[in-house]
Specification:
The structure holds two protein chains of two kinds. Chain A contains 13 helices and no strands. Chain A has two domains: 16-173 and 182-330, Formate dehydrogenase/DMSO reductase domain (Formate dehydrogenase/DMSO reductase fold), CATH 1.20.1630.10; 332-361. Chain A starts with 17 loop residues before the first helix and ends in a 29-residue tail after the last helix. In chain A, helix 1 crosses helix 2 and helix 2 (58-104) runs antiparallel to helix 4. In chain A, 45% of the residues are buried. In chain A, 76% of the residues lie in helices and 0% in strands. Chain A is mainly α. Chain B has a two-stranded antiparallel sheet. Chain B is mostly helical. Chain B folds into two domains: 12-319; 325-420, Cytochrome Bc1 Complex, Chain D, domain 2 (Orthogonal Bundle). Chain B has helices at residues 12-48, 51-86, 88-121, 128-157, 162-165, 168-172, 177-200, 206-218, 221-237, 240-249, 251-276, 284-307, 328-334, 354-362, 375-378, 384-392, 394-397, 408-420, and strands spanning 312-314, 318-319. Residues 427-434 of chain B have low confidence and may be disordered. The chains are: A mainly alpha, B mainly alpha. At the A-B interface, helix 2, helix 4, helix 7 and helix 13 of A face helix 1, helix 2, helix 3 and helix 4 of B.
């Protein structure tokens, strides 16, 4: 009896065809996954390197510091890139998403303080390492657990929203309906090892880049990243089928029956396996070509999984979608505004990045001269003493 | 009515939204004004050749990033989280109207974040011109995010012609959008100065400290001069019902409005007669108290802005208890409970009291039982007849309340339950618990 619990459609129509909104949802979620991998997997690798570094391994110490320095920015982009898919999922599937969020209630809301504490923890390790001292692994572990909590709640909400038949039981108690244990763990584990693998890929690619200046460290980092990729891939051999088996049988058969679903289901592991092989080859010979190809293959596998994920969601939700939920009330002008601003914004960020990269590659400037005027290329005064301000 | 109710004992969902939103606004408006403060401060340091001033600006940028990129950004997400939990119907309506506006704001977020991180991480590493350019890009993109969200927030009070046309531009460029943006821009500039006073009083160098304190305090001048006329302009564009609420229609709102005005006056006069006139007088405790006062004033003003919209979430379109204005007659015919999907009784769960189900559907989006906006103290001394009379004339007796649209049975049940709140509790009945 799921009909009565799914809210009626919003009286205001969709501002764009559902296909366009779904495309934007998939694309922006894919963008979100890339920094998310660095946040989740990067936090794990940083923590492991930090702990190993305590045993006196210099490369681990260095890698831990370099990764820790990146984590705050990766969290910032994870959150910012996460805004758009959440926007589109709420516009398309709000009747499901809002309801399941409310049923989760405090568990869902507590993600906000969890994110704040985790985020500040990562800044502590990145910017105030001297003050954090030997507590750095502890801070990283707490931040990592909180990030995992956020990921778990997202997974839980995605599972719950796809099962309106479980809503009354979870909201009112068992007397109102079934309250099965939500199959969150396989979904979360599948995502976790995927993200860990992508972070390992990023570390390995970073090793190839560093290799040009520091052969020994670069090779070690490239192989260290590969080891994480191999570990994550080995886990996925078990976890991915486990997750697949938790999907309802009708959805499994419809995914397999469709050309797109079957193609994505086949492409993802093939591309991932190809990527792992190429990355191993690249790390063995320290060749940048196979390393880049490995990156393309593994990011391609990620794109295939993101597409598959959306297909599974559509198959689960569309039968419950109330009639008229996707009626159209097109807004052409505002959509054009978005497209223009998107292109202009990306161009502007691209220009700034190119200009900064160009100036960073330029020969080093002489020691600081007294500042005067706004022209010319003179550096600032160097870091302010902590006691002076801020 | 169509969604389950997120039960937040004592605080109520509304107060959760308020806590998150006020925290966010107090930081996010600093994030907007502070961008201009940083880039103008940096340019001032270059022009005067003052390396120590530049060092201060750099240190201030560290404080700025730590506060705005983390707490400011995540509490912004938190507002979205909390409004969706407390008022999914309103959130859904706003998303449908403004999805392209929010998507555009998202692009501004990307530019803003990228510029903020580049600005911080490229100190000493790129040319001055490039660094200043990054700073300007940050400042204007941050203001752009404020301009977009301002149109959405002001729409909720004055949807204007959108009610007839359903046109995005009529919604976004609504009657209070421009005066509201004018006010918020002034506040952003003032907050930039207020936060800078805090970091300035950490400076050890007396001369530099006095220069920065006076400069930072001067950032309060535009708001001091123009907030009053701006507020009058804003209120002149607000609905008549909103002005009535501010000026006596709801004593609590009028009181908070006065607190907000008086607090602002005290804040401005304290800074302009104190640190601005005599920078040496700026002590750390003083500026921290003034900052705290700024938070109180921000909270009070935002609370009033929300309160004058009552009884609507979107003025003239959606009541604060999830009922659309256009469906009010229909609800009045059928009552609440036959339409509600998430009341206990419709899922075979007996409510402790039939009126409690009505409360959860019709009242709980704004009221708690014992806490914020608590009903128990509000109905103390009422009998059933008086409660029924109040419910029958809810919107005429109190302009900020929506009409009670339930059936006679629902009104009777709710009145009975309200009266029971202040009666001695009976011993629990075995098997009667939910």
């Amino acid at each position: 009896m799921t009909g009565p619990v799914v809210p009626p459609p919003d009286p205001i129509g969709l501002p764009a065809p559902p296909g366009l909104l779904q495309g934007l949802l998939v694309f922006t979620f894919f963008l979100h996954v890339l920094p998310l991998a660095m946040t989740v997997g990067g936090a794990v690798i940083t923590l492991a390197s930090e702990v190993a570094g305590r045993q006196g391994h210099g490369h681990h110490q260095r890698l831990a510091r370099e990764l820790a320095a990146v984590l705050p920015a990766s969290v910032a982009y994870t959150i910012t890139f996460g805004v758009a898919p959440l926007l589109f999922v709420q516009v398309l599937y709000g009747v499901f998403f809002f309801t399941s969020s409310i049923i989760l209630g405090w568990l869902w809301f507590l993600m906000i303080p969890a994110m704040i504490v985790a985020y500040y923890g990562l800044y502590l390790v990145a910017w105030f390492r001297e003050r954090v001292g030997r507590a750095a692994p502890l801070v990283l572990a707490v931040a990592g657990l909180l990030i995992l909590y956020v990921a778990a709640m997202h997974a839980k909400n995605q599972v719950l929203m796809a099962h309106p038949e479980w809503w009354p039981g979870r909201y009112f108690g068992p007397a109102a309906g079934p309250t099965p244990v939500l199959p969150v763990l396989p979904r979360l584990a599948h995502a976790f090892f995927g993200l860990l693998g992508l972070a390992g890929l990023a570390v390995s690619l970073y090793g190839h880049r560093v290799w040009r200046a520091d052969r020994e460290y670069g090779r070690w980092v490239a192989r260290s990243g590969l080891a994480w990729v191999l570990g994550a891939a080995a886990a996925q051999i078990v976890v991915a089928p486990w997750y697949w088996l938790t999907l309802p049988a009708p959805i499994q058969s419809r995914v397999l029956a469709g050309g797109l679903g079957g193609g994505l289901l086949l492409a993802a592991p093939l591309l991932a396996a190809l990527g792992v092989g190429l990355l191993a080859l690249a790390a063995a010979a320290m060749k940048p070509g196979p390393a880049i190809a490995a990156g393309v293959a593994m990011v391609g596998a990620t794109a295939a999984l993101v597409g598959l994920r959306d297909l599974v969601r559509q198959l689960a939700l569309l039968p419950h979608l109330p009639a008229g939920a996707w009626a159209l009330a097109l807004q052409v002008g505002p959509a054009v505004m978005f497209a223009v601003v998107l292109l202009a914004g990306l161009a502007l960020v691209g220009y700034l990045l190119a200009r900064v990269a160009g100036e960073l590659r330029a020969p080093p400037v002489p020691p600081p001269a007294p500042v005067s005027g706004t022209a010319g290329r003179a550096p600032g005064p160097g870091p302010a003493p902590p006691a002076q301000a801020g | 009515m169509n969604y389950p109710h997120w039960d937040v004992p004592l605080l109520g969902g509304g107060l959760i939204i308020a806590i998150v939103a006020v925290t966010h606004v107090f930081i996010a408006q600093f994030a907007v004004g502070g961008g201009f403060f940083l880039v103008l401060g940096e340019r001032w340091a270059y022009r005067t050749g003052d390396a120590r001033l530049l060092a201060y600006i750099k240190a201030h940028s560290r404080f700025f990033v730590l506060l705005t990129v983390v707490l400011g950004a995540v509490t912004g997400v938190g507002i979205w989280w909390s409004i969706a939990l407390v008022h999914p119907t309103g959130t859904s309506a706003l998303l449908r109207v403004f999805v392209w506006g929010w998507a555009t704001e998202w692009v501004f977020f990307i530019v803003e974040l990228s510029a903020a991180l580049l600005y911080y991480y490229t100190w000493d590493r790129v040319s001055r011109a490039a660094h200043l350019l990054i700073g300007w890009v940050y400042a204007f993109s941050a203001w752009g995010t404020a301009a977009i969200i301002n149109g959405i927030v002001s729409f909720m009070l004055t949807p204007g012609r959108w009610l007839e046309t359903q046109n995005f531009w009529h919604a976004w460029l609504n009657p209070t959008a421009v005066p509201s943006l004018f006010l918020r821009t002034l506040v952003c500039i003032a907050l930039a100065g207020l936060y800078a006073l805090v970091t300035a009083t950490w400076l050890a160098d007396g001369g530099l400290r006095r220069r920065v304190v006076r400069w930072a305090a001067g950032w309060l001048w535009p708001a001091f001069v123009l907030l009053g006329p701006g507020a009058a302009w804003y209120l002149s564009q607000a609905p008549e019902s909103a002005r009535a609420i501010v000026f006596g229609g709801a004593p609590a709102v009028s009181l908070m409005f006065m607190v907000s005005v008086a607090g602002s006056a005290v804040l401005f006069l304290t800074v302009l007669l104190g640190p601005y006139r005599d920078p040496a007088s700026a002590s750390r405790p003083l500026v921290l108290v003034v900052l705290l006062l700024g938070l109180v004033v921000t909270g009070g003003t935002e609370w009033v802005r929300e309160a004058i919209r009552k009884p609507y979430v979107i003025h003239g379109y959606l009541y604060s208890n999830h009922v659309f204005v256009h469906e009010a007659d229909e609800v009045a015919d059928t009552g609440y409970l036959t339409r509600a999907r998430w009341v206990a009784s419709s899922h075979g769960i007996p409510a402790l009291h039939p009126g409690e189900d009505v409360f959860r559907v019709a009242c709980a989006s704004c009221h708690t039982v014992d806490g914020y906006n608590g009903l128990r103290p509000l109905v103390r001394g009422w009998n059933v007849e008086f409660a029924e009379f109040q419910l029958s004339h809810l919107d005429t007796l109190k302009e900020f309340m929506p009409p009670f649209l339930g059936t006679e049975d629902e009104r009777g049940a709710l009145a009975d339950w309200l009266v029971s709140l202040n009666q001695p509790r009976e011993a629990p009945v075995v098997g009667g618990e939910r």
